Amino acid sequence: MTDTVPNLTPEQLDTFGRELDAIRQRALDDLGERDLDYIRRIIRVQRGLEVTGRGLMFASFIPPAWLAGVTALSLSKILDNMEIGHNVMHGQYDWTGDPALSGHGFEWDTTCPSDQWRHSHNYMHHTHTNIVGKDRDLGYGILRMSEEQRWNPYYLGNPVYAVLLAVFFEWGVAMHDLEVERLASGDVDWGEKRDLLAGIWRKASRQVLKDYVLFPVLAGPQAPLVLAGNATANIVRNLWTFTIIFCGHFPSGVVEFSEEATAEETRGEWYFRQLLGSANLTGSKLFHIMAGNLSHQIEHHLFPDIPAHRYAEIAVEVSELCARFGIPYNSGPLGKQFGSVVKKICRLALPDRLRGVARAKPADAPTAPTQPEPVLVAA
Amino acid sequence: MYTETSTTHPNSRRPFVPFQRRGLGHRILGSGLIDALAAPHGVDRYLELIRPGWSINELRAEITAVHHPAPDSVTLTLRPNHVWRGFEAGQFVRCTVEIDGVKRARCYSPASSVHRRDGLIELTARAHPEGLVSGFLHDHAAPGMVVGLEQAAGDFVMPSERPDDIVLISGGSGITPVMSMLRTLLDEGHRGAVSFLHYARTPDRVPYARELMEIAAQAANVSIDFVYTREGGHRGHFCADHLRALAPDAHTFVCGPPGLIDAVRADGDPDHVHSESFVPPAVTIDTDDAVGAVSFARSGLDAPNTGATLLEQAEAAGLKPAHGCRMGICHTCTCRKLAGSVRHVVTGEISSAEDVDIQICVSVPTGSVALNL
């Protein structure tokens, strides 16, 4: 265990876990009309922005209308992806019994089929958060995001791959469950992935048909502008979701874990890992809504199925609890957190040997993180 | 009174469905193009934001009037949207309302005539102390409120070739489906003898008393009789004499508590008695005798058997199984039993086969049970 990870006794971890369970239970007991009103209001705003955005783009011959349309559609896609889609698909509103808000039935406005997302994200990522070798969100099979991933010359392109992943993030997410890197290495056979591919094809072709064929064609002579507008909105959403999501687990200070150390976790230890493996973003209420409240990544990882709009109030209790147990609570503004993510992506592109040399140079000192990301080897 | 809301339809026995005609707007909104443009959410998710009752594919109804025919009862008049396919007298609909953010569904039988020209349906619910949905409707239903519906279902219906002589028997809130039958028969100009016998605890608890009296006064072939079980008097609970006094060879339609149905069945020709139990059977929860455990295979949960119905045990375990009537009628809660044996609380029947579908709202485990839930 490195010095950045606080040393808690099994008894302390047990108490810590029970206190978090109590916070969770209080929130569950309080679920009601307030939560439903909130998410319905967000949905209303999103659908309004979507219809407005698509409508304005039909008036693209007036340049400001095109710009306003793209802005409205981008905001709509961000809300649909994050505060609505991601959170509803976590089952945060299953208790309402409303089929339109069912975690198992919801489909979002991205190329990723929702059932595959529920497997790769809800199960794989949320269960194995930040366990190197198990959590495929650590680099999405494309990037080197951890010292524990062995360097090879491919990773020299780390920053380039990151930019490409950001621009085409929805496609990266859509292909997440395919495990492209294991297909390439021959560990997995294409035949095993046939059903997944068919699912991606079905979902993605509907999205492409809508955004890049039907709406442009309906716009007649303005087809190219509508096509460009829809593509822009998708890319804006991709860049934003990439930024927020990468700030959840990769800023400096976030802890990674090994499979061995986490093999037999208690509930308290699981909470402990979720907390150390996540980082929050500070910002205004509007910022949190646009981030799908994933700016409260810590609270989201502790309680993934509690309606996300409650994370802000839960965060007060969680940070107080952390202070009491001496556990670091990683939180910072977007600029600072994302800056440290960018640095990590660039730093890990280089072989460890070279980096060791580079870090020793005083000129590079400010860009290097103050402490290396620790790897928890013993819980 | 009934003539205000319904018009005689002597030649047609098919339910009148006014909203089935689809206009150009419906055809466009229901088209494949609009579906592709509204993907992945579907056009209904946009329409409902303009008006809660608007939907292309989902059945909903708007409450147009609310009455309280008796202190503890509420009568709702509903206008279903165009998805509604109509009903047969005696059937029930599953009605969904939102209570403190949670959707709750219960089954109610329309009491209106199937021939009502305005296409509206009328539901009457009695608010009993533990009735979450009926209590909510009693206290909060108001014109303009939109409720969810499912298409009518149920086998408690009259043959399409109407028998000449018909006996309608109801107990308590079981009056609604037979009320629908009576109103439907009147609208059809039925010429045979119709005897209507209703059992209530006290006179003030009969929702349609005034209308029934008016019908009796106007229609020579209809006789109406009320029996008040808490009033003492010369008649109490159902006995064979009541039925024989009405019509010995008539088709009998009875809806009410299980005791009433059993009594009618015991005395009538089995081919001529049609029945529906309308009151949740009293489940004897014997916590002392409950043994074994209930495992919910899909959720990976196990809980000790409490002796309650499997639906209640699933809910106590934090699951949200689909359900409707909670009394074994609507089959919404039907679920695969993987192993173990259960007792049907209404029939007492034991099911011990593996891999069979059971209604979890009326099944109690007799030992360890595994459900695909």
Spatial gap, N to C terminus of chain A: 7 Å
CA-atom Rg of chain B in angstroms:
22 Å
- Tally the beta strands of chain A: 4
Q: What average pLDDT do the residues of chain A reach?
A: 90
Supply the number of helical segments of chain A. 15
Low confidence ranges of chain A: 357-379
Strand percentage of chain A lies at under 5%
Strand proportion of chain B = 25-35%
What is the level-2 CATH architecture name of the largest domain in chain B?
Answer: Beta Barrel
Structural class by sheet pairing and helices of chain B: alpha/beta
Helix content of chain A: 55-70%
- For the record, the count of structural domains of chain A works out to 1
Approximate helicity band of chain B: 10-25%
Q: What is the succession of H and E elements of chain B?
A: HHHHEEEEEHEEHEHEHEHEEEHEEEE
Describe this structure in words.
- The complex is a heterodimer of chains A (379) and B (373).
- By secondary structure, chain A is mostly helical.
- Chain A has one domain (10-332).
- Helices cover 58% and strands 3% of the residues of chain A.
- Chain A has a two-stranded parallel sheet.
- In chain A, helix 3 crosses helix 9, helix 8 packs across helix 9 (223-249) and helix 9 crosses helix 14 (334-347).
- The N and C termini of chain A lie close together (7 Å).
- With 373 residues, chain B is of the alpha/beta class.
- Chain B has three domains: 13-149, Beta Barrel (Elongation Factor Tu (Ef-tu), domain 3); 166-277, Rossmann fold, CATH 3.40.50.80; 293-371, Roll (Ubiquitin-like (UB roll)), CATH 3.10.20.30.
- In chain B, strands 4-3-6-1-2-5 form a six-stranded antiparallel beta sheet.
- The longest helix of chain B is centred in the middle third of the chain and has 13 residues, at 175-187.
